[in-house]
Amino acid sequence: MGLLSGFKIIEFSAIGPVPWCARMLASMGASVVRIDRPGRPSPQDDADFVNGGRTAVTLDLKTSRDVQLALSLLSKADALIEGLRPGVMERLGLGPDACHCVNPSLVYARMTGWGQNGPLANRAGHDINYIALSGALHAIGPTQRPSIPLNLIGDYGGGGAFLAIGILAALLHARRTGQGEVMDTAMIDGASFLMALPYARLGTGKWVDFRAQNLLDGGAPWYDVYTTRDGKFVAVGAIEPKFYANLLSKLGIEPESLPPREDRERWPIIRERFEQVFLSQTRNEWAARFEDIDACVTPVLSMREAPLHPHNQARHAFVDWEGTPVPTAAPRTSEPSTRYRTRSERTTVEQILERWST
User: Fold this and answer.
1) pLDDT of residue 41
2) Catalytic residue positions?
3) pLDDT over 70 for what percent of the chain?
4) Could you say which of 13, 238, 314, 329 has the lowest number of CB atoms within 10 Å?
5) If you average pLDDT over every residue of the chain, what do you get?
6) What is the pLDDT of residues 193-231, one digit of tens each?
7) Which domains are present in the chain?
8) pLDDT band at 46 (very low <50, low <70, confident <90, very high)
């Protein structure tokens, strides 16, 4: 079941965006086989949701025998995903040239932090380093210092999501032409592209190159987070005039009592007024007050609270995975996705080849 039913993908075990992308493709119906290195914990002991739910084999790619077994799998596959440093797959005898010799239509998807070339290509790094050099980290947070946006921008947004998009595009190309593709997906590239709007506005003078000074970075009082009486928070995104008018109405603020929104120098006056009013009630009281009006005001929910919200429950946005709520596969399609399997299934290369031959 699923839109990618029938597609066969080989995932070379890695961290960060590679397993996240593989999990996404598997949830859409692709048959994903993960090649583990010797010494990896067995799937029965691996309860990590992102790494679970695949068919897994263990191969020692430092031996010629297991390299040949890997090539036999790749000869039947539609795509390969690897996240090793540049040159490692070539040294193992599994670089693009070797793989395309056994399967010319193979989509060879490479995932790194810095890319396959450039001065930093062989340097270590993590999400925080990639988004630091993209300009994204500098742009996020209060004026005093940047804030760390989990590993959402580099690993998953700039890495795994772009990796999945590239694989799907390359699969279409391969089906149409019979020719494979080598994809150089870098987290620093993806993080930079995610910053397209701020960079475009910076170039036209509509964005200030400092934190908390702009429309979407908490600079505007009507696009910010406010503390409530119980020490919790509400998120306000009332950008459009009609939503701003509704915001003021529910806050009990007369528009004439505030400076015009166009006067950036007086934004602190508006913010101070909002802060005072939001402190007068609890988060849930504000949520109830804004529930029936379009003012783009919502409660800031914790990770334990989010699965219990009525909207998320109505959309089945979270599913139970071994007693833990985890996000449902996205995006939604008319073709049902496969159910999440709990643990990885350990098998052999021979069994996979037999399965893929039927």
Assistant:
1) 59
2) 126, 155
3) 95
4) 314
5) 93
6) 999 999 999 999 999 999 999 999 999 999 999 999 999
7) 8-194+328-357 (3.40.50.10540), 223-302 (3.30.1540.10)
8) very low
Tell whether the model's pLDDT for residue 299 goes beyond 60: yes
- Which pLDDT belongs to residue 304? 96
Average pLDDT over residues 282-305: 97
Sheet holding 345-346, edge to edge: 181-186, 107-112, 79-82, 8-12, 31-36, 55-58, 345-346
**For residue 53, is pLDDT > 80?**
no
Whether residue 28 contacts residue 98, with contact meaning beta carbons closer than 8 Å, is answered with no
Exposed/middle/buried for 241, CB within 10 Å: 0-12, 13-18, 19+? exposed
Give the per-residue pLDDT at 40. Answer: 67
